[in-house]
Structure formats: structure tokens, C-alpha cells
């Protein structure tokens, strides 16, 4: 049972979550013509009357750019303003996941993006750990990530997540926690809703944007921190075989944060993950606003 925040932003106003309903004929429901963001909101450990939002500006900018694929002009600063007001109206007392969503809200049946109404909503729900912080097992999915030449992968488009859903269910129903998708070139791409990293010979290695990955914000944060911490960083294609014998493998995302991978298929990975642990400690301190060097990554929202 999900614990939704009581107030939602829907059709240009704040309303009770239970009243934020749409028609079964809504265009986006039928054609996946939507785009979304996901961000965590946590109570400030030093001050319970404040909420902390990690890299709010980057999340809003990515959603605004995703909306452009839907031919929808939604400025990032407008999204940011609405999310801050949404937090202040709900006054959450526990860690939450915030979901802003842009979509074709018209009721037409033709698959199109021109001459159709667009809209924007925001809701939230209480959320602890999305994946086990102790680590997950992964299988290589039989489903492949889409290609940028046939799908706008630079956007976080809702229709893309049918592949993620198929891969996740396939993994869980075959005894694993999570799926790792390959791209159309047979290279390691990402998990069902997370970016992927590995450590080999002291280097932090992750697929680059040319591998059809999502432009993850947590991923970007990890790369910046690793360089700052003196960890060698390489963005390149990754073969399946080298992933199976990596020194460390972990997943990253807003919901997943940094999650270690314990096993891939029938290959057990080393239990110790020292480089991942360093990055996780640093990122946690930043998201909790305990790192003075990265306070510009955290938006503090007062509730009073």
C-alpha cells in the first residue's frame, strides 16, 4: 500500500491527491506520450522543519528538455517553483519520492504531438530504500535497450519504460532482484531504471552517452565526485564478460541511490566494495546537506 502525500498539483492547481483524476481517454495513457522526473525529498537531519531536495535544478532542467520532445514548452524555473510550493503544502515528515509528469492531456485518438493539449502534474509518496542497501542480484535481460535513432533517449520518456518493466519482471520472476539491459550493439547499457558502474584495476568505468543510456543525474554526480576524490574515471563501452569479473559493480539512480551488485547471473562478485563505499559515503553526506563544498547541490525548503 502506497502512502501518498495528501496534496497534488493537477491541471494548474493544488488539489487533494484523491481528486487528481483524468479521463480514461487521455492521449498519454494510450500512446506513452509523457515524460517524467523523479527526485527525493528528505527531512533535514539537522532541522526537522526543512526539506532537502537534491539537485532540484538539474531535475527540472532535464524534465523541461524532455517536454520539448512532446512539443511542450515548460520552463525549468516554473517546474522548480511548483515543486517547492508542493513541498511546502504537503509538509512531509518522512523521506519521499516526488514525481513530476508532463503529458498529452487531450482526448484524441490519433498518435501525434501537434495540435493536442499538454499538461503537467506533481504527486509524491513516502519512500525508503527502493533496492536493498545490502546489495542485489542481477540477470542479463533478454530485452534490449532502445536505440536513439528510433527513440528520444535523451529524454525521460514514459513509453521507454515498457522495456524496463519487461526486464524487471523477467528478472524477478526468474529469481533475481534486478535486470541489466544490453544495447543494440551487445554492450552493457543500464539496469531497469538505473545507471551502472564497475570498478576494474582501480578505475571507475561506466557506459557513455553514446551507449544509449539515460542521462542520469545521480550518475553525473558520481562522476563529478569521483574525479574530485582522485578516482580515475573512464566512460566507454563495457562488454558483458568484463562486467562478470569486475572488482566492483553498483547501480545508481534517484530511487536506488547507490546500490551494490552482489551477483550477476551465476557469477558472485567480491563482497568488499571500497571505492563504491567511499562514493556512497560522500554522496549521502551531500544529500543530507552535511558537506559544505556541495551545498549548492541541495535546495533547502523551509516548511514554516
Architecture blueprint of SSEs:
Blueprint: E1 7-10, E2 13-16, H1 27-31, E3 34-36, E4 39-44, E5 47-54, H2 56-69, H3 76-90, E6 96-104, E7 118-126, E8 136-144, H4 161-173, E9 178-182, E10 188-191, E11 195-200, E12 203-206, H5 217-228, E13 233-235, H6 240-244, E14 248-253, E15 257-264, E16 267-268, H7 274-287, E17 298-302
Parallel strand pairs: 8-9, 8-15, 12-13
Antiparallel strand pairs: 1-2, 1-7, 3-6, 4-5, 4-6, 5-17, 6-7, 9-10, 11-12, 11-14, 14-15, 15-16
Helix pairs in contact: 2-3
The domain count comes to 2
Low-confidence stretches: none
CATH superfamily of the largest domain: D-amino Acid Aminotransferase, subunit A, domain 2
Q: At the first level of CATH, what is the class of the largest domain?
A: Alpha Beta
Tally of separate helices: 7
- How far the N terminus sits from the C terminus, by CA atoms, comes to 29 Å
* CATH architecture term of the largest domain: Alpha-Beta Barrel
Residues in helix, %: 25-40%
Largest sheet: 9 strands, mixed
Mean pLDDT: 96
Structural notes for this entry:
- The protein has 304 residues and is of the alpha+beta class.
- It folds into two domains: 7-126, D-amino Acid Aminotransferase, Chain A, domain 1, CATH 3.30.470.10; 136-287, D-amino Acid Aminotransferase, subunit A, domain 2 (D-amino Acid Aminotransferase, Chain A, domain 2, Alpha-Beta Barrel).
- 26% of the residues lie in helices and 31% in strands.
- It contains seven helices and 17 strands.
- The chain has helices at residues 27-31, 56-69, 76-90, 161-173, 217-228, 240-244, 274-287; strands at residues 7-10, 13-16, 34-36, 39-44, 47-54, 96-104, 118-126, 136-144, 178-182, 188-191, 195-200, 203-206, 233-235, 248-253, 257-264, 267-268, 298-302.
- Strands 8, 9, 10, 11, 12, 13, 14, 15 and 16 form a nine-stranded mixed beta sheet that branches. Strands 1, 2, 3, 4, 5, 6, 7 and 17 form an eight-stranded antiparallel beta sheet that branches.
- A hairpin with a 2-residue loop joins strand 11 and strand 12.
- It is globular, with a radius of gyration of 19 Å.
- The mean pLDDT is 96.
Amino acid at each position: 500500500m502506497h502512502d501518498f502525500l495528501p496534496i497534488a498539483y493537477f491541471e494548474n492547481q493544488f488539489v487533494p491527491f484523491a481528486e487528481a483524476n483524468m479521463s480514461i481517454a487521455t492521449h498519454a495513457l494510450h500512446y506513452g506520450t509523457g515524460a517524467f522526473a523523479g527526485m527525493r525529498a528528505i527531512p533535514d537531519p539537522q532541522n526537522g522543519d526543512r526539506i532537502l531536495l537534491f539537485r532540484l535544478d538539474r531535475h527540472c532542467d532535464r524534465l523541461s528538455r524532455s517536454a520539448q520532445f512532446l512539443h511542450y514548452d515548460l520552463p525549468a524555473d516554473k517546474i522548480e517553483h511548483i515543486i517547492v510550493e508542493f513541498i511546502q503544502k504537503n509538509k512531509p515528515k518522512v523521506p519521499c519520492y516526488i514525481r513530476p509528469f508532463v503529458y498529452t492531456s487531450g482526448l484524441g485518438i490519433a498518435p501525434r504531438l501537434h495540435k493536442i493539449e499538454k499538461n503537467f502534474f506533481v504527486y509524491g509518496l513516502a519512500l525508503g530504500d527502493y533496492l536493498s542497501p545490502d546489495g542485489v542480484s542481477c540477470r542479463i535481460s533478454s530485452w534490449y535497450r532502445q536505440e536513439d535513432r528510433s527513440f528520444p533517449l535523451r529524454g525521460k520518456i514514459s513509453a521507454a519504460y515498457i522495456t524496463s518493466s519487461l526486464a524487471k519482471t523477467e528478472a524477478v520472476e526468474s529469481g533475481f532482484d534486478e535486470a541489466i539491459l544490453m544495447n543494440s550493439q551487445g554492450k552493457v547499457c543500464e539496469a531497469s531504471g538505473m545507471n551502472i558502474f564497475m570498478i576494474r584495476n582501480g578505475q571507475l568505468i561506466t557506459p557513455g552517452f553514446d551507449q544509449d543510456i539515460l542521462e542520469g543525474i545521480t550518475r553525473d554526480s558520481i562522476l563529478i565526485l569521483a574525479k574530485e576524490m582522485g578516482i580515475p574515471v573512464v566512460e566507454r563501452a563495457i562488454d558483458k564478460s568484463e562486467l562478470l569479473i569486475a572488482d566492483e559493480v553498483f547501480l545508481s539512480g534517484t530511487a536506488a541511490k547507490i546500490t551494490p551488485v552482489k551477483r550477476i547471473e551465476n557469477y558472485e562478485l567480491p563482497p568488499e566494495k571500497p571505492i563504491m563505499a567511499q562514493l556512497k559515503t560522500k554522496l549521502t553526506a551531500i544529500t543530507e546537506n552535511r558537506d559544505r563544498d556541495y551545498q549548492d547541490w541541495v535546495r533547502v525548503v523551509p516548511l514554516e
